[in-house]
Design a protein that fits this description.
- The protein has a single domain, classed as Nuclear Transport Factor 2, Chain: A (Roll), CATH 3.10.450.50.
- The chain has three helices and six strands; from the N terminus they run ααββαββββ.
- A six-stranded mixed sheet has the order 2-1-6-5-4-3.
- Strand 3 and strand 4 form a beta hairpin.
- The termini are far apart.
């Protein structure tokens, strides 16, 4: 069982922990069923099945992620903009939506919006 995000700021922390554990299903659980993920390679994947395939391939080399410097989420009603600066300087951007049960899931995830040098 994967604990749900009760606050949009928990999503990034859960992402790092689950990715470092190689937990593909835990990563998929962070996204809405029809979410869009853009890993920066020029193509987006849409929906849990494609996201699952993406993370299965992505985690095959067992990458390890450092905790990121997260900016507090900016919320408007049931939507939240989340963003983090990774150790390599990349800036991420995500849109999360509050679910009917009060938990949060990403609906759009873009791995790299830019880089801080």
């Amino acid at each position: 069982m994967h604990p749900p995000a009760r606050d949009p700021d928990e999503l990034e922390r859960f992402f790092v922990a689950r990715a470092n554990a190689g937990d593909v299903e835990g990563l998929v659980a962070l996204y809405e069923a029809n979410a869009t993920l853009d890993s920066g390679d020029g193509e987006s994947v849409v929906g849990n099945e494609e996201i699952r395939r993406f993370f299965t391939d992505y985690l095959a080399s067992a990458p390890q992620f450092d905790p990121s410097l997260q900016t507090p989420a900016v919320c408007s009603g049931d939507l939240a903009l989340t963003s983090s600066r990774l150790a390599n300087g990349d800036i991420t951007g995500e849109i999360a939506r509050r679910q009917a049960d009060g938990t949060w899931l990403w609906v759009i995830d873009r791995f790299t919006l830019g880089k801080i040098r």
